[in-house]
Structure formats: C-alpha cells, structure tokens
Specification:
With 316 residues, the chain is α/β, with parallel strands linked by helices. It has a domain of 197 residues.
C-alpha cells in the first residue's frame, strides 16, 4: 500500500511539473535575423523540475561521480588561446549549404548544412584533431538548428564530421531511439548552453544546462536517445540523467551572474549529455564573461545536487 501511495504522489508531482512548463515561456534568442524560440515552452530542456520527486538512486549516482567534486564552469572568455566553451553561429536565409561527409552516416542527418566560410569552431580554428570540434549553426528564419561533431575541413574546402543532427526548433521531436547527434546522448547542444545575453543581460536562465561526467552507464533516459558506454554498472549515471541544485542551497554570497546560473539550476537543473570532465557544465564563450565570477561556481559540490525522476531507463 505504501508503495502504491508513493507512486501516486510521484505521478502527481510529474503532472504538476508538466502543467508548470505549459504555463511557461520558451527561452528566446535575439538575433539580427529576428527572435527565435529555442524549442517550445514544454520542451524537456525548458521544463521546470523543481517539484519533481527525487530519484530512488540519486545517492548512488552522485557517489559514483564523487560527492566532493566541484561544479566546473566549462565556459568563459579565453582558455589556452581559444574561446572557452562551445560557440554557435547565427546564419541568415541566404547562407549557402553544403554536404558533409560523416564517419557515422547511419545516425546522422544528411543535410546539407549552412556552414559559413569561417565558422566558429569549438576550440578555435587550430583545435586539436582529437577534440570535439563542434560547429553549431542556428537559422532563425527557418527555425532550424544544425549541429556537427568533430568537424575537419579538407584541403578542397569540403567538411568531414563524425556525426550531425538537424533539429526543428518548433517541435519536441526526438532523435530515433539508439541514434546519437552531435552529442553522445543524442540531444541538441545549443539549448543546454549558458549564454551571456540571458545570464547577464536578461538576468534569468529559463532552461536546463548541459553537463558531462567521466563514467556513464550503458543506458539512457529520454529525451536522450543514445548511450556511450559499455558498463552495465547500475550506479553509474545514464545519459539524459537530470539533476537539480537543492532548494535549500544558499546562493546569497555568490556574485550576481553566478546567482542567476544557480537559480536556474534549482529550477531547471542540468542534463547529462556526454562523457567528459566530471560535473563540467557547458556554456557559450563570450569576451564579456567575468571568469572570476564564474569561478565561484566551483564552491558548489556534487553533494549539493539531487537526481530527479524524469522517466524510465532505456538499456537496449
């Protein structure tokens, strides 16, 4: 009986969270080609998870990462001579498109892709060939998001990439089950980036952030559609795992920009999207970021978060 009551309570909280999301407004990116909503208001990235139940394996997932490890802002101004973070570029309706040769064509969208002559490449134009080398392009007019992983320009000017995905920003359609994207979890990257314009200029973060951990499980939770591990250890976090900063965590002594991010993490949380540094949270580079203020986020530890229940585990 107690177990049945618990399930009813969890379902009730899930319904409340969905209703909150339906009443919300989608995050908007302002561009020279017009404003564009980054997916509908009820998209998982834009879901308020502050009232969702804590996952029954929350403690085990967090302990597998390390409770004392810090939240690490993987973005800012400049790092090792290149913009720090994952950049994106806004393209207009007249931007020419080209075909990309993929290493994983069976799980990639064929395109073509509107790659500018000098695109903003993650890690800069001289990024190491063994790095992620993402290129993200958003077309506000067509309301399309184009994302590529491990991009390398060939001597003849054409591009090769590991994988690529195209997202319609007006829908919540997921990748096919089992498919990757430009990210290991099969998710879009852009909606999970902290951007200067929203954090500092608007003073409000209205979506979840993307984060990584070093070891993951061979499983995923939707909206993720892909795993990137051979381990079946049930204590390791699966792709698509959602965590939120505890509601009682005191953010009053943090700088203003950090407080905006931390408030967002209490409301929308973070979604596990790739293998990488433990508790590295993603953002877009911008020369206006205050790296010293962002650095204060490292005071926050893994133990200050909790995993929330967002759906079933997929292992196939």
């Amino acid at each position: 009986m107690n177990r049945m009551i618990s399930r009813v309570c969890r379902l009730t909280l899930l319904v409340l969270a969905v209703n909150q999301c339906l009443d919300a407004q989608a995050p908007v990116l302002k561009t020279e080609h017009g404003d564009v909503a980054i997916f509908p208001a009820d998209n998982p990235w834009n879901q308020d998870v502050s009232r969702l139940p804590v996952h029954e394996r929350s403690r085990q997932y967090l302990e597998s990462v390390g409770l004392g490890k810090p939240l690490h802002p993987d973005f800012g101004t400049v790092w090792n001579g290149a913009p720090s973070g994952i950049p994106y570029v806004v393209v207009g309706p007249t931007q020419s498109k080209q075909t990309v040769e993929f290493e994983y064509p069976d799980e990639s969208d064929a395109g073509p892709y509107p790659i500018p002559d000098n695109p903003s490449l993650e890690g800069g134009p001289n990024a190491p060939l063994d790095s992620d080398r993402h290129i993200l392009m958003i077309d506000p007019t067509a309301k399309k998001l184009y994302e590529l992983f491990h991009c390398v320009r060939q001597p003849d000017g054409r591009w090769k990439a590991g994988s690529g995905a195209i997202f319609d920003l007006t829908t919540n359609k997921l990748r096919p089950s089992g498919w990757t994207s430009a990210d290991a979890a099969g998710l879009p990257i852009l909606p999970g980036l902290a951007r200067y314009d929203e954090v500092v200029e608007q003073g409000e973060l209205r979506h979840a952030l993307r984060f990584t951990v070093r070891k993951t499980q061979r499983a995923y939770i939707p909206p993720a559609t892909h795993f990137a591990s051979r381990s079946t250890d049930p204590n390791l976090p699966p792709m698509g795992l959602r965590v939120r900063l505890r509601a009682d965590y005191d953010i009053s002594r943090f700088p203003a920009s950090a407080q905006v991010i931390l408030r967002g993490l209490k409301t929308y949380g973070m979604i596990l999207a790739d293998n990488g540094g433990d508790w590295f949270v993603s953002g877009a580079p911008d020369p206006r970021w205050n790296d010293e203020e962002l650095g204060t986020l490292k005071r926050v530890k893994v133990s200050d978060f909790e995993v929330v229940e967002t759906g079933p585990l997929v292992t196939r």
